[in-house]
Amino acid sequence: MLLSINWLKDFVKLSKNIRPEDLRDKLTMHTVEVEGIINQSQRYDQVVVGKVLTVDKHPNADRLRVTRVDIKTDKLVIVCGAPNVAAGQLVPVALIGAKLPNGLEIKESEIRGVKSQGMICAEDELGLGTNHEGIMVLDKAKLGQSLASYLNMTDIILEIDNKSLSNRSDLWGQYGLAREVATLFDLKLRPYEEFLDKDYETAANDRLSLKVEDQKLCPRYQAIRIDNIKIGESPAWLKERLLAVGLKPISNVVDLTNYVMWELGQPLHAFDARVVKQLVIRRAKRGESLKTLDEVEHALNENMLLITDGKQALAVAGVMGGLASGISPDTTSLVLESANFEAVSIRKTAAALGLRTEASMRFEKGLDPNLTDLAWRRFFTLLKQLCPEAQLAGPVQEVADFRLDLGPIKFSHDWLTSRLGFRLEKKKINHILEKLGFQVEISHNEFSVMVPTWRAAKDVATAEDILEEIARIYGYDNIAAISPVQKLAAPLVLEENVLERQVQDIWALENHFSEVYNYSFVNENQLKKLDLDWSNNLHLVNPISTEHTLLRHNLLVGLLNNVRTNQFNQDNLALFEIGQIFRNASGRINKAEGEELLPYQEKSLGLVLADNQTELLSRLKTGLNIFSRRLFGQDFDFWPLETAPAWADKDLAAKINLGNKEVGLIAQLSPDYAADFGLKKACVFAEIDWPVLLEIFVTNPVRQYEEPARYPALVRDLAFVVETKLLYNDLRNEIKSFSGLIKSVELFDVYSGTKLDSQHKSLAFHISFQDPTRTLIAKEVDDLQAELVKHLENKFGAQLRNF
């Protein structure tokens, strides 16, 4: 889209201090993107007025002439092929280095043995028309004068990016852009009615027959016949305006339709009245075609809207007219079309035909149907200046069925303020909207806004649209950049995630176990090898393989598979997994709701230690205690299992307790079951009930900082010989509870060798004695130790080890 500043001045009085750069900057920041500024005089740089002095026949070509041309500063030899070149003519001469509007760059050349120092130009080569029958002969020109000066090309053009106009159909004309400029610079805009004649003389009541078959695709159609016209060349002012926006002048009538389209944004089309007796607007029929003004035959489809005479197609609606009904030099009467077409239909038709015209680009944006009346009136007003005898043959014929939602759109001043981020005065808001053509009523804190028709078609429909208009005209760069105030809250802490991270850190970083991730599937054969009951395992309806037919009930099988796979690559395997296990609650009843429970899943922590060394169970128990101390500040308790799993060594299995809660089990795999499963190493396995672990973790008091003891502890190492059946925990707990001065009891040795019979064992402890208020002396510790030994002897038959 091109905006002519000279054209703009018809509607807005620009002061001298408003430069083209100011227009560019204001429009870019507030309305549309201006891509560049074009000085029209540069269009014909290096093209000057010359006088043909002589014309001689070319020595080597019958149709060429060798001319000598005076350009005031020099006399040039130019080879010319135009039949109308003659001595004494004033002609446009393109000098060496000139670039013509058609893209031709003039270079010194040799034509059939004669050097040519430029080119004498035809009308079409200069973009001034379509005539190429001969060179352009100038009238009343000054020798050496630039062609731009001769043509009075003093305009400055703003080149506007079309993409920025996509939602603004009102800006596809010079008057719409003038409205924006008047608003941005707070200037007075001349009402468009001032440019229209108010009274029209009409001849005999010659009514043109008009029928619109599809009013959805054609909401408004106006047509009027105009007689007594004379087709001819357009006056200089009209040519200048069209050339400024990149159009070639054709003839006065055609040029006027283009002029109105570029001024108002409403396309017009003129038919030769000799071939138009009636107008029927309908969809194309199957197999129908039309040769358009570009002399190309186009196949039409049934979705395209046509302008017809009732039988034959005259034009593709909104895109291009037909060649047969176009204006010709001998046309004396015309039928003028001023219509509104449905935007999507025009877009699809133009794309299907490969015809993207100036008219179709405007229609596909969604034009205001009210423009049609202004457009034909503006056309006839200007036509009367060119053809004073022109006369309306009858009243304008119209078919209209459209409705625009003009509002009112209501919003409060407070609502506007909350979204702008600052409080803009009501008076300023009112001024901005009225300059843009909105009608505003203000009642206390409430605004009621009526939308102008040229913005209601596909643009402004909500209060947010009004807000955007106010903000852009006020200027986004005038709105202070204030960072939004937002209170930051700590993210939600999921205790289970915290626990899982700590469990991973303890086992991987402190106990040096490797974490694994296994499939949640097992099969019957694997469970049978471990003598596990698989009847309660959930069966998969569509298993991925025969190896994965059941959902796992514990983590044992997966971890043993890991050992079997890696046992030949590593001497020592220490693995852990945090994974989902699946419980079948079928048959169990929810006591609270009296309903049968559904199958469910929960997490579990599995651990496996495998190597060829002894004391595997003790080593894993040590790791578990490190784990327990880090999480809860105390050791686990290990108690005998009432019923050990079938796969476990009955003498090396225990349940794991913390306080009075059972949290899991630990057991060494029986050698027979290990061999059956394909294991070559001794394996010990532990599984922790994750929900119980999580409950303890969440409810466990937060560990508080304890000040280091001010007074030293006395540590005594005592080894007791007791019966083999006595549990370590029973003896340890009895020692710890014997006196408040005993702060810690730690087992460091278990002996059951040749110096003891099979019914006894030796348990050796580090026992720490400490008083927080004073330093203990050896004698009182000796006395307390003696009392402890006597107490244990009485209760358990324990004897101090003497070897």
Annotation keywords:
26% strand; 803 residues; OB fold (Dihydrolipoamide Acetyltransferase, E2P); 7-stranded mixed beta sheet; alpha+beta; Phenylalanyl-tRNA Synthetase, Chain B, domain 3; 6 domains
Total discrete domains? 6
Percentage of helical residues?
A: 25-40%
Biggest sheet architecture: 7 strands, mixed
- Total number of helical segments? 21
Residue fraction in strands = 25-35%
Instruction: Identify the CATH architecture of the largest domain.
Output: 3-Layer(bba) Sandwich
Mean pLDDT across all amino acids: 90
The N- and C-terminal alpha carbons lie at a distance of 108 Å
Shape: elongated
CATH superfamily (homologous) name of the largest domain: Phenylalanyl-trna Synthetase, Chain B, domain 3
Rg, nearest Å: 50 Å
Give the gist of this structure:
The chain is of the alpha+beta class. The protein contains 21 helices and 40 strands. The chain folds into six domains: 2-33 and 161-190, no CATH class; 42-150, Beta Barrel (OB fold (Dihydrolipoamide Acetyltransferase, E2P)); 195-400, Phenylalanyl-trna Synthetase, Chain B, domain 3 (Phenylalanyl-tRNA Synthetase, Chain B, domain 3, 3-Layer(bba) Sandwich), CATH 3.50.40; 409-478, Phenylalanyl-tRNA Synthetase, Chain B, domain 1 (2-Layer Sandwich), CATH 3.30.56; 495-699, BirA Bifunctional Protein, domain 2, CATH 3.30.930; 714-800, 2-Layer Sandwich (Alpha-Beta Plaits), CATH 3.30.70.380.
Give an overview of the whole structure.
By secondary structure, this protein is α+β, with helices and mostly antiparallel strands. It folds into six domains: 2-33 and 161-190, no CATH class; 42-150, Nucleic acid-binding proteins (OB fold (Dihydrolipoamide Acetyltransferase, E2P)), CATH 2.40.50; 195-400, Phenylalanyl-trna Synthetase, Chain B, domain 3 (Phenylalanyl-tRNA Synthetase, Chain B, domain 3), CATH 3.50.40.10; 409-478, 2-Layer Sandwich (Phenylalanyl-tRNA Synthetase, Chain B, domain 1); 495-699, BirA Bifunctional Protein, domain 2, CATH 3.30.930.10; 714-800, 2-Layer Sandwich (Alpha-Beta Plaits), CATH 3.30.70. The chain is 27% helix and 26% strand. It has 21 helices and 40 strands. The strands form eleven sheets. The protein has a seven-stranded mixed β-sheet, sandwiched between helices. Strands 5-4-3-6-9 form a five-stranded antiparallel β-sheet. The chain is elongated and about 145 Å long.
